[in-house]
Design brief:
Helix content: 40-55%
Bound molecules: phenylalanine
Low-confidence stretches: none
CATH superfamily of the largest domain: Bira Bifunctional Protein, Domain 2
Largest sheet: 7 strands, mixed
Order of helices and strands: HHHHHHEEHEHEEHEEEHEHH
Radius of gyration: 41 Å
Strand order of the largest sheet: 1-4-5-9-8-7-6
Length: about 325
């Protein structure tokens, strides 16, 4: 063969190399076949591309340029074909065949969040925690002693009316107030005391926009030497400003509870500013209550309060109907 013939033959061999390589890569049906093709064509030691590269040395200087250019192009195209084959086969194929493509984005599970009442509860625990109050708990199925007797509520008191309470068997009932926890705490430890108790209470009220047969209360109790009504008012005002905003208006009205003396009703100006809504009751712990738990009313004084959590939550968020808090309606709850 003459020298030009050799050069022509060399270029033709590059064409064949490219055609063989491309069909090997595109025809591969598994990662193992791609790997076999890679070794055959692109292998560092005895791959056909490597061999073709060595052939360059034997060529006449005049033929080198054309061969070198064509060689680079072939090498590049086989490398891309190899990458493409790998990408094609590295994807999981099994499920695609069943009409289910696992490479498609999945359906995100719907994540919920804390119910607004739970958010309120958590914030109350946090706020009163900063005033030094710790959390106490008591049972929802309560005995009549803790719900009434120990709270200085006499046997004939109208608050005991079966129409106003959920009585269970044998002197037990669903508690109608969290004041029961005051008694349980004082029975179990000596003063000083600074606790809150949060939980459900039950009363057979007719359900309307501001009433429900079950709602939540936060009870507070502080007992120590020299605790006064001024402390009670300060704590409740500070609390209302922290939770409902600096500009919230609250008022104290004289009232009566058998377990506090004197007693007040605490109101807050409702959102909209056109009416007062009861936030809860409060007062100085009655000496009879202290005596019933073995505290000396000449030694210590204390205040107690009980607030409705639903109403605090409603005032805070501008909710107008308590029933919305119990209906578990996603579009409503999603706003908080
Ligand atoms: N337990 C009272 C109620 O449910 C509220 C209250 C608590 C009043 C503590 C005084 C002291 O209405």
């Amino acid at each position: 063969m003459s020298l030009p013939d050799l050069a022509v033959e060399a270029l033709a061999s590059l064409d064949a190399l490219e055609a063989d390589g491309l069909s090997a890569f595109t025809g591969s049906g598994s990662p193992a076949e791609v790997e076999a093709a890679r070794v055959e064509f692109l292998g560092m030691k005895q791959g056909r591309v490597k061999t073709a590269q060595e052939r360059l040395k034997a060529l006449e200087p005049s033929a080198k340029r054309a061969y070198g250019q064509r060689f680079n192009a072939v090498k590049g195209s086989l490398e891309s074909a190899h990458d493409a084959a790998k990408a094609r086969l590295d994807r999981p194929t099994l499920a695609i065949a069943d009409g289910f493509d696992v490479t498609r984005p999945g359906t995100r599970p719907k994540l919920g969040h804390r119910h607004p009442l739970t958010q309120t509860t958590d914030e109350l625990i946090d706020l009163f925690g900063r005033f030094g109050f710790t959390v106490a708990r008591g049972p929802e199925v309560e005995d009549v002693h803790h719900n009434f007797d120990a709270l200085n509520i006499p046997p004939v008191h109208p608050a005991r009316d079966p129409l106003d309470n959920f009585y269970l068997s044998e002197g037990t009932m669903l508690r109608s107030q969290t004041s029961t926890v005051q008694i349980r705490v004082m029975e179990s430890q000596p003063p000083p005391i600074r606790v809150i108790a949060i939980g459900r209470v039950y009363r057979p009220d007719t359900v309307d926009a501001t009433h429900s047969f079950m709602f939540h209360q936060i009870e507070g109790l502080m007992v120590d030497k020299g605790v006064t009504m001024a402390d009670l008012k300060t704590v409740l005002r500070l609390f209302a400003r922290s939770y409902l905003g600096e500009d919230v208006k609250i008022r104290f009205r004289p009232s009566f509870f058998p377990f506090t003396e004197p007693s007040v009703e605490v109101d807050m100006l409702w959102h909209g500013g056109d009416r007062w809504v009861e936030m809860g009751g409060a007062g100085m712990v009655d000496p009879n209550v202290f005596r019933a738990v073995g505290y000396d009313p000449d030694e210590v004084t204390g205040f107690a309060f009980g607030l409705g959590i639903e109403r605090l939550c409603m005032r805070r968020h501008g909710i107008d109907d308590i029933r919305l808090l119990y209906q578990n309606e996603g579009r409503f709850l999603g706003q908080f």
